[in-house]
Amino acid sequence: MSIPQIKLLNVGEIRSSPKFRSDKYIYPVGYKASRQFTSLKNHTQLATYICSVEDKDGTPEFVVTCCGQEFRGKTPTEPWSQILDKLPRVSRATCSGPKKFGFALKRIQDAIHEEALLQSSNTPTLTRRVKNPLEKGSPITKLY
User: Fold this and answer.
1) What are the CA-CA distances from residue 97 to residues 21, 83, 120, 135 (Å)?
2) Taking the domains of the chain in order of start, what are their residue ranges?
3) Residue 13 C-beta-side C-alpha neighbours within 13 Å
């Protein structure tokens, strides 16, 4: 099975707090992406998963929703590990939360960094609300 395309739905809001960053990635609040992955209801089909980042008491909370179920964690890997625990072994793959969320993809990193630059030039505290730079949730790959 090929790796399904990840669609960036919303870049989100870049926070200046170091809690919303790792050594490699920025985790914008309101970030939202969709991707196809093995369905929780029918393991022979794909389903749409929505990955998002929320602010929970000043720290990022990573949320994945699919098939009416919601999975939450303190890292991008935690909700995906919970999902993989519900799938048969055949569906298992190495679980990299940043990859599953899309943070590891260069085109998404570029969009996040572009927003960070725009926000830093317009608002010194990096807390300005940003809109999706893409039109109507179209795949970010169309821009690159």
Assistant:
1) 14, 11, 27, 26
2) 7-143
3) 14
The token duo for 89 is 């072994």
Report the pLDDT value the prediction gives residue 139, as an integer from 0 to 100.
39
Q: pLDDT tens digits for 80-90?
A: 999 988 887 65
Q: Which amino acid is at 38?
A: T
List Cβ neighbours of 63 (8 Å cut-off, separation of 6 or more): 51, 52, 53, 54, 70, 71, 72, 79
- For residues 34 and 48, is the Cβ–Cβ distance under 8 A? yes
**Cα–Cα dist 90/88, whole Å:** 5
CATH architecture of 7-143: 2-Layer Sandwich (3.30)
Give strand ranges (E) for 11-143: 32-38, 46-56, 59-66, 69-73
Q: What is the pTM of this model?
A: 0.78
